[in-house]
């Protein structure tokens, strides 16, 4: 989600506009505008939870095998939306999963098709 900048909360917020977007979470935590980025993180987590994207499980191997759960490593990606003058309008925090660390693709197969195949099936029906 996004964290809109509220000029009333921080006295020198225009100075934040000159800062580049953080590359890592540890970099974000050392910044003076971290509370705004943390708000963007909270909004992203709330969006994910409202959609039922994940279920919290323990790292116990027995629990993972019985529930067919996959533990995935994630990281935060930060971006800010700016106006033409360079003033930050929104801060976005996205939680992304590192797909290269997931199990083999056989376990996570998601079939897809092309528009041509759909047209073919509809023309036969």
Report the major sheet.
Answer: 3 strands, antiparallel
User: How many separate structural domains?
Assistant: 1
Strand order of the largest sheet: 1-3-2
Into which percentage range does the β-strand content fall? 15-25%
Q: Radius of gyration in whole Å, from Cα? A: 20 Å
Q: Share of helix among residues?
A: 25-40%
Class by alpha and beta content:
alpha+beta
H/E element string? EHHHEEH
Question: Which blocks of ≥5 consecutive residues have pLDDT under 50?
Answer: 5-11
Quote the average pLDDT. Answer: 78
Structural write-up:
- Residues 1-31 are annotated as: Disordered.
- Residues 15-31 have a biased composition (Basic and acidic residues).
- The chain has 125 residues and is α+β, with helices and mostly antiparallel strands.
- It has one domain (2-124).
- It has a 3-stranded antiparallel sheet with strand order 1-3-2.
- Residues 5-11 have low confidence and may be disordered.
- The protein has helices at 25-29, 34-50, 61-67, 115-124; strands at residues 2-4, 74-82, 88-97.
- Helices cover 31% and strands 18% of the residues.
- The protein is built from 4 helices and 3 strands.
- The termini are far apart.
